[in-house]
């Protein structure tokens, strides 16, 4: 018997290496933007969630600096202890107003928001129905809740309906949960049908709007707006760290539900409040999202231009169905995806390989930004053409 209780870790890492699943960080040492310095090399950035190009915006920087000068760098405690500032409330009101919900509450990250909401609302006697492609934070929250969890095949409302009619009556509460824009594929959930099923079977519905906030819908309110479902009863979660260029998460829902979360969500109650700088930057971003719809228009123009160039030049490229600024090119295996990502980087394009276990099949994932220039998109397509994928 091997007496070293840590020896298995090295063996496990070796297995990860052998499967081409090993992951490591890459250093960016410049402001975020459509081009960045990646380990000193200037690259066109197709790997950022900064959809509207706000993470480097001077107005967000100024708001963050002012907040630091006024309130300091740290919040010094949880919201219920000494961490609450008027800025938090202003941000929550701005989110509720954009989402047209009664109230909202901000968490220190989207991941913590998902875990907090699920574990507050659902317990051992309950049932969770979760899309197979949901984000890790939803899946982890489901495990932590202790509930019975059924994963339904991606976007299959038929299987979901079947499971509900078989299982719903055996459980106290039921939560259906789904990403609205699927983060690693770029397609959308069938929201109106999911809301209908939730109503029919008396289930709560949790919608993760992380990649939809600021991006989807006429005013950037997300997929609820995109699908014309504003005002229907559900729980919306999102992040302040993608199109809003800051850090943090939010939940938007009824007064009662938000009030309940402030009393029952452990990852809100027992963690330090969002920092003044992050809060102020997100609030500045919320205002820009409302005041500058042309940013969102530029993002969609870029998405459409890329799709058109691909149609015209790369008819054999296997693109996963997408209705968002996330576009994925499917590749046969992890090694091919890694080689493709490496080649793209060598020619100055940052578009990473995404592999199992993050996703079921290996791919190159592209995220578009409002601040990409036409020539950035053209260089990407010309390079892919030369690679004969
Ligand atoms: N949900 C989804 C769908 C996400 O893609 C992410 C971030 N990758 C999160 C939640 C977590 O958000 P945050 O980064 O703010 O923790």
TrEMBL record:
GO MF entries: 8-amino-7-oxononanoate synthase activity; pyridoxal phosphate binding
Parts forming coiled coils: none
Cofactor(s) the protein needs: pyridoxal 5'-phosphate
Catalysis: reaction(s): 6-carboxyhexanoyl-[ACP] + L-alanine + H(+) = (8S)-8-amino-7-oxononanoate + holo-[ACP] + CO2
Family annotation (Pfam families): Aminotran_1_2 (PF00155)
Modified residues (N6-(pyridoxal phosphate)lysine): 242
Record text on subunit structure and interactions: Homodimer.
Gene Ontology biological process: biotin biosynthetic process
Domain of life: Bacteria
Protein name: 8-amino-7-ketopelargonate synthase
Keyword field: Acyltransferase, Biotin biosynthesis, Pyridoxal phosphate, Transferase
Protein family (similarity comment): Belongs to the class-II pyridoxal-phosphate-dependent aminotransferase family. BioF subfamily.
Biological pathway: Cofactor biosynthesis; biotin biosynthesis
Function: Catalyzes the decarboxylative condensation of pimeloyl-[acyl-carrier protein] and L-alanine to produce 8-amino-7-oxononanoate (AON), [acyl-carrier protein], and carbon dioxide.
Phylogenetic classification of the source organism: Bacteria, Bacillati, Cyanobacteriota, Cyanophyceae, Nostocales
Keyword Secreted among UniProt keywords: no
Limits of the Aminotransferase class I/classII large domain: 42-383
The enzyme's E.C. designation: 2.3.1.47
Species name: Anabaena sphaerica FACHB-251
């Amino acid at each position: 018997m091997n007496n070293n209780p840590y020896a298995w870790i090295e063996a496990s890492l070796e297995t990860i290496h052998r499967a081409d699943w090993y992951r490591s960080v890459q250093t960016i040492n410049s402001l975020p933007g459509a081009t960045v310095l990646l380990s000193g090399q200037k690259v066109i950035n197709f790997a950022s969630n900064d959809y509207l190009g706000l993470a480097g915006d001077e107005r967000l920087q100024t708001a963050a600096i002012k907040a630091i000068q006024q309130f300091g760098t740290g919040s010094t405690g949880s919201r219920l202890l000494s961490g609450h500032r008027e800025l938090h409330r202003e941000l929550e009101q701005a989110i509720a107003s954009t989402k047209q919900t009664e109230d909202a509450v901000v968490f220190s990250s989207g991941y913590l928001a998902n875990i907090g909401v699920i574990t507050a609302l659902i317990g051992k006697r309950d049932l969770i129905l979760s899309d197979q492609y949901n984000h890790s934070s939803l899946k982890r929250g489901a495990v932590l809740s202790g509930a019975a969890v059924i994963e339904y095949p991606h976007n299959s409302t038929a299987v979901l309906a079947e499971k509900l009619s078989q299982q719903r009556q055996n459980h106290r509460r039921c939560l259906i949960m789904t990403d609205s824009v699927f983060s690693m594929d770029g397609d959308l959930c069938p929201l109106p049908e999911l809301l209908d099923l939730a109503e029919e079977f008396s289930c709560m519905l949790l919608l993760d709007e992380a990649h939809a906030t600021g991006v989807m819908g006429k005013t950037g309110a997300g997929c609820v707006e995109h699908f014309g479902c504003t005002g229907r009863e559900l729980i919306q979660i999102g992040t302040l760290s993608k199109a809003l260029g800051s850090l943090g998460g939010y939940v938007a829902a009824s007064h009662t539900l938000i009030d309940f979360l402030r009393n029952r969500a452990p990852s809100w109650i027992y963690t330090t409040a969002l920092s003044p700088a992050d809060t102020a930057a997100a609030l500045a971003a919320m205002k820009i999202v409302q005041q500058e719809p042309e940013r969102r228009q530029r993002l969609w123009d870029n998405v459409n231009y890329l799709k058109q160039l691909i149609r015209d030049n790369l008819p054999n490229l296997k693109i996963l169905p997408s209705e968002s600024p996330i576009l994925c090119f499917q590749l046969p295996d992890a090694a091919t995806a890694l080689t493709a990502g490496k080649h793209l980087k060598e020619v100055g394009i940052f578009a990473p390989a995404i592999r199992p276990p993050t996703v079921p099949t290996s791919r190159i994932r592209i995220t578009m930004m409002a601040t990409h220039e036409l020539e950035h998109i053209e260089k990407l397509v010309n390079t892919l053409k030369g690679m004969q994928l």
